Amino acid sequence: MAFSRTKKGTRSLFAFVGEVGDTARTLWWNFFDWLAQVEWRKLAVIALVALMLSAPFRLGESVAMFIVFSVGLKVLAGGKRRAEGEARVAEQQAGTETLERRLVEAQMAALQAQVEPHFLFNTLALIGQLIETDPPQAAKIHAHLIDYLRATLPQMRAKGNGTLGRQIELSRAYLAIMQARMRERLAVSIDVPPDLLSASFPPMMLQTLIENAIKHGLEPKVEGGRIDIRASASSTAAGNVLQIEVQDDGVGFDVHAGDGLGLTNIRERLRLLYGSRAQLIIEAPLDGGARAIIRMPFAPDIFAGSKL
Amino acid sequence: MKTPTAIIADDEEPMRQLLRARLHEAWPQLQVVAEAANGVEAIALTGLHQPDIVFLDIRMPGLSGIEAARMLFNRCHIVFVTAYDQYAIEAFEQGALDYLLKPAGGERLKTTCERLQARLGKSPDNIERQLTQLLAHTAQRKPQEYLKWIQAQVGTSLRMISTREVLFFRADEKYTRVQTLEGEVLIRKTLKELEDELDPKEFWRIHRSTLVRVDAIAEVKRDLRGRQMVRVRNSEEELEVSRGNTHLFQQM
Question: CATH says A113-307 is which class?
Fold first, then answer.
């Protein structure tokens, strides 16, 4: 690479010499690493064998020289090289640990993504009103609120929330409450094939997308609108992909309003959990509103069929 | 004396019903003549019915309660209604504005009603100054008018790319290349247009053809020819800093 700026005529020659140099250097360092790490006993055996093999060719003297040189090198520099190697391994480990720590941090942030006070107070006010006018409906909304809080409050969040089915249930509870409040201003459709319900799916991601759709898309729209939630699985060259889509026909994007912590948190968690195999895609549909899509690797549940 | 009249404005119907029922208990003579589902309706209905009092929810689509109040305050008495708005509540207290907390009821509603009854004959307070302050505050809380989403045609769909995802922008003849972690897309906006619209604290112009996201910069180094080169996180590419812009990295 360093030779690419020399004049044209000599370039190929230089490149060739450079390549030979590179190869020799790599081989040398490989040998050096091996020498630094090999056990003394093994080195002694190899030296003996080399001496015996070289004797018929009258090379004994140069081989002996090389052995002395190797031993000297191992004594002088081996320790340092070995330490370097160990440091490298430790560094890699530290890198993994950093990654794990970041994942934990991102999950903590998601856990802290608390219940919005606005939502809570308005819902409680609604229940208070329904207790007088429509007690059965009040009981229903009350139950939905408990479901929602159980899944949302960090202290209450139980294990086993990490399936798509559980996340859909939570979203249904939330949407039922919002429908009771917004009445005809909110229409909802959820289309998730039953065999995807057992798919693993990180908590609070779907919820964040739905809350965004309502808060930024539908609540500000005078006549309200609809929200569509769809899930599908497909197999691609890169493996099976689970796709979750949340679309609304609300007021659409304000290109000057930031994307908020919710989306950033989803993006970060997806990257930490699945690397480049997962994506959060935001789109502006032609007929208005907003569409958010999460794509992630999907391991089909091979026992799902037998349960049906 | 004529029957006192009122309008209730709230985007959530159950809340309107609740307030109507509670008002009926606390002040049976008060006649709720209309209900509005948003700020615009509240203004129209006020014009139509000329009520003595308007109960305004703060968060409503179209026009917020505070915006609506600014157009109505000299025509009728205003009572704000909110479930939770810490800042607004403090401002109401300071500005001596009437407000109710949802779900309205009990002693608090009774007190408010008594206060309103006492003031019915008089003309409404001039609360313009308080309202202007409140509005200025809500406007201030709005994010600055910098571009936060990049629109890009990807296949048949219009992709919205958050500026937080962008590593750098590069001029590419008539187009601009948008580099994200996931890849690159081309957009029609020129680099100059982008530079004018983006937050200068978020993106730096380091070269005639390059805008780089400041917190994506991993390191700045010199190459063999002494040029400053910026390396961006999670990207192989090195971006040249033109001589005119080296001051950006002087302390490094």
Answer: alpha beta
